[in-house]
Amino acid sequence: MLGQYEQGRAAAAKALVIGEDAHTLSALIMNEVGSGRLDEARVIAGRLLKLRPDFRASYARQNFPTRSAEWGDRMVAVLCEAGIPA
Question: Model pTM?
Answer without folding.
Answer: 0.89
